[in-house]
Amino acid sequence: MPKDLGEEVAKRLDQVTGHSPTEKGQPEVVRELRNISLIYHASKVMLCIILNRLENKVEELLTEEQAGFRAGRSTVQHIFSCRIIVENNLCPDDIDLFTAIVTERRSNGAIVGPLGQCIIADMFKRFRDGDRFFFERNDPLIGFTEAQLNAIKKISMSSLICITTRTSTMQDNAFLFNTSKKPCSEFPVLDFGLWKQT
């Protein structure tokens, strides 16, 4: 490398970065340059070039609504704008049903609020009432008798697991694991004699 060129690079890097490229001595003397300092400054320049090229491309690709990871923008601004619109301009008829269910305050012990609870309860009621084979349906042709219904309601999930598997002990609630178990012989068994035709 020519002596004049090395000295010129050293001076320019010193001016651009504000850091002296030499550990001690005079910055103009090329033989006193530290290589690590030169690499550090060169990588900074390269990173600035790459960043400028990426920023321009990212700005082209991102939509106007995208605020995250953009200079001078924040998702806080979008949230604030939405809140102002909702508080000042919207009436309940303008809100989408799913959005209302997701954003309403949750009821105690529930994962949805009152609106979500009402809709879910109504949906399951309609499922039950629309199923002509639902076991509690009081239909004289296909429904169960009162004695048969009482026998069915005594059978729990734990009873079913005991009856259909080789396990010998089971907890009262099959869905709770850290509870005491009891022998399967203590769980009720379905009395099929109630289904014998007379």
Question: Care to describe what's here?
Answer:
It is built from 7 helices and 2 strands; from the N terminus they run H-H-H-H-H-H-H-E-E. With 198 residues, the chain is mainly alpha-helical. Helix content is 49%, strand content 3%. The mean pLDDT is 77. It has helices at residues 3-17, 35-61, 75-89, 97-103, 114-130, 146-154, 157-164, and strands spanning 169-171, 181-183. The longest helix is centred in the N-terminal third of the chain and has 27 residues, at 35-61. The protein has 3 domains: 3-61, no CATH class; 91-130, no CATH class; 146-195, no CATH class. Strands 1-2 form a two-stranded antiparallel ribbon. The chain is elongated, with a radius of gyration of 38 Å.
Number of strands: 2
Q: Calculate the terminal CA-CA distance, rounded to whole Å.
A: 111 Å
* Radius of gyration over C-alpha positions, nearest whole angstrom: 38 Å
What composes the largest sheet? Answer: 2 strands, antiparallel
Number of helices: 7
Strand order of the largest sheet: 1-2
Low-confidence sequence ranges: none
Pattern of helices and strands: HHHHHHHEE
Helicity level: 40-55%
Average pLDDT: 77
Q: Please tell me what the overall shape is.
A: elongated
Q: SS-based structural class? A: mainly alpha
Number of domains: 3
Beta content comes to under 5%
Oligomeric state of the chains present here: single chain
